[in-house]
Amino acid sequence: MAGQSRKWMILVAVIWIQAFTGTNFDFSAYSSEMKKVLGISQVQLNYLAVASDMGKVLGWSSGLALMYFPLWTVLFMAAFMGLFGYGIQWLVICNVISLPYILVFFLCLLAGCSICWFNTVCFVLCIKNFPANRALALSLTVSYNGVSAALYALAGDAISASSSSLYLLLNSLVPLIVSIAALVPILRQPSVDPLSPEAVRSDSIMFLLLNVLAVLTGVYLLLFGSNTSDTSPSRLLLGGAIFLLVFPLCVPGVVYARHWFHHTVHSSFQLRGSGFILVDDDDLELHKRLVSRETSYNNLNGSSLSDDEVCEYRSSSQKLCNKEEDSARCCEKMMEKDQLVMLGEEHPAHILVGRLDFWLYYMAYFCGGTIGLVYSNNLGQIAQSLGHSSNTTLLLTLYSSFSFFGRLLSAAPDYVRAKFYFARTGWLTIALLPTPVAFFLLAALSNSTAALRVGTALIGLSSGFIFAAAVSVTSELFGPNSVGVNHNILITNIPIGSLIYGVLAAVIYDGNVGRGLKLMFSDSVVCMGRDCYFLTFVLWGCLSVVGLVCSLLLFIRTKHAYDAFERNRALVEPQRNWSSNSIA
């Protein structure tokens, strides 16, 4: 039982790490001051944001480090990367030291790399300590990464609301302090023993309670973190947020009472499946065996089929019906070409990049979640150009809070799966809908404060869902064993999109600089007015429509694989329950 308590303390430690290491989301809070101090153009400022996102490309280096160093060492290596990356930037922005632009660029790259190292440590801790419920553990902890900007905004208001450079100091010191606090539970990791089905279900209920607490934390930050002012009790509100983060430490005490939960709660409420990854190992293997059995049955009852004929049969059962309609057959062939047969089939990297479904998925992410991230990087300049500089912190909190809610919502489809089943790629398409709506709303009503807030909230909600659901979608479509490599290939779209979309926005911004105001004692200029980002919003909106279309095509092409998996799971589930009851 003591080991059970320690594993929940590790989960709380991971929550703390994730909650305070999403430091790339508060870039817009100090970007205007950085631009002024360095005397750079909007395009050059965008390159600094790109450098931070490029750190994700180097995320593989953390896995390499884990091969040679213990976990706690990699954790502190990540913390010191952030300490130097953000700390030296803070010295620059405070005019303590002066550095050339290229060195600031590499500091941003180092800081961005630290975020990936923190994420790797958190993933390893969740997978190692929650093998039966690793999906639920990952879902919960990854969600907290989206609330970092709101927490730092609240901390900034509590310490000094007028200092934008304070964010860099907090970004450098807080992750190191949290790493020290998380060191004890990490060093005292319990041995992992197999759990009984009853214990797995009990843990699932515990995760449900933690998700409810996470929602309360997000609501608290949304209501109070975005309405702070000089006269508001900012320090008291910050204390409340810290309390909500510490409160999950009560979970070890709940572990000792899990028998009570089992008899009083679990009898009337049952969770099935994962809240994050739809395909668990047992269901996946059963699905593969059933598909193989069906294929073997058809081969035995028919003539010996060639490999091409087998692939043609497995791709879709509707091809024979389309022979009568030549005009529609071309479109059908395009939709069915290289179609996924079943979920969870392993795709090595060289096969992955040759699949149409992967590139549809890549473009959906590239034109959806990545645009939302670039929007958050530009929030400071967007607010400044529209005359809402004083609301930058509020907008940052809105984006962060709704991104947090979007990440939590990514787990909702599996909680309702027993009553309402829908392919996860379909949920991904629905999640992309708010993004074009938000950008066209911003383009039409950018002078409206309400439109700016609503648009920011919608973009945060959409991008948060995509960020959290991406790992599960990658695992389902292209194999759980290859998800590490495949997901790293997928997120290469983030630095590419950050560069393309950011440069696009910066060029349009600088093109309207004639209508702007030149800052005194600085070579940088500020564009003021609706035109600074109007065309950018329109173009981003059109590109997000492209992402929506790609996601819709991906859903159409993968729907049959999801439906087949669900049918096979439904057939096997009663047999599995009967076996469990017999053993009991």
UniProtKB/TrEMBL annotation:
<feature type="transmembrane region" description="Helical">
    <location>
        <begin position="166"/>
        <end position="184"/>
    </location>
</feature>
<feature type="domain" description="NFD4 C-terminal">
    <location>
        <begin position="345"/>
        <end position="561"/>
    </location>
</feature>
<feature type="transmembrane region" description="Helical">
    <location>
        <begin position="204"/>
        <end position="224"/>
    </location>
</feature>
<feature type="transmembrane region" description="Helical">
    <location>
        <begin position="136"/>
        <end position="154"/>
    </location>
</feature>
<feature type="transmembrane region" description="Helical">
    <location>
        <begin position="392"/>
        <end position="409"/>
    </location>
</feature>
<keyword id="KW-1133">Transmembrane helix</keyword>
<dbReference type="InterPro" id="IPR036259">
    <property type="entry name" value="MFS_trans_sf"/>
</dbReference>
<feature type="signal peptide">
    <location>
        <begin position="1"/>
        <end position="25"/>
    </location>
</feature>
<feature type="transmembrane region" description="Helical">
    <location>
        <begin position="359"/>
        <end position="380"/>
    </location>
</feature>
<dbReference type="InterPro" id="IPR056555">
    <property type="entry name" value="NFD4_C"/>
</dbReference>
<feature type="transmembrane region" description="Helical">
    <location>
        <begin position="100"/>
        <end position="130"/>
    </location>
</feature>
<protein>
    <recommendedName>
        <fullName>Nodulin-like domain-containing protein</fullName>
    </recommendedName>
</protein>
<feature type="transmembrane region" description="Helical">
    <location>
        <begin position="490"/>
        <end position="511"/>
    </location>
</feature>
<keyword id="KW-0812">Transmembrane</keyword>
<dbReference type="Pfam" id="PF06813">
    <property type="entry name" value="Nodulin-like"/>
</dbReference>
<dbReference type="Pfam" id="PF23262">
    <property type="entry name" value="NFD4_C"/>
</dbReference>
<dbReference type="InterPro" id="IPR010658">
    <property type="entry name" value="Nodulin-like"/>
</dbReference>
<feature type="transmembrane region" description="Helical">
    <location>
        <begin position="421"/>
        <end position="445"/>
    </location>
</feature>
<feature type="domain" description="Nodulin-like">
    <location>
        <begin position="7"/>
        <end position="252"/>
    </location>
</feature>
<keyword id="KW-0732">Signal</keyword>
<keyword id="KW-0472">Membrane</keyword>
<feature type="transmembrane region" description="Helical">
    <location>
        <begin position="236"/>
        <end position="257"/>
    </location>
</feature>
<feature type="transmembrane region" description="Helical">
    <location>
        <begin position="457"/>
        <end position="478"/>
    </location>
</feature>
<feature type="transmembrane region" description="Helical">
    <location>
        <begin position="532"/>
        <end position="556"/>
    </location>
</feature>
<dbReference type="GO" id="GO:0016020">
    <property type="term" value="C:membrane"/>
</dbReference>
<feature type="transmembrane region" description="Helical">
    <location>
        <begin position="63"/>
        <end position="88"/>
    </location>
</feature>
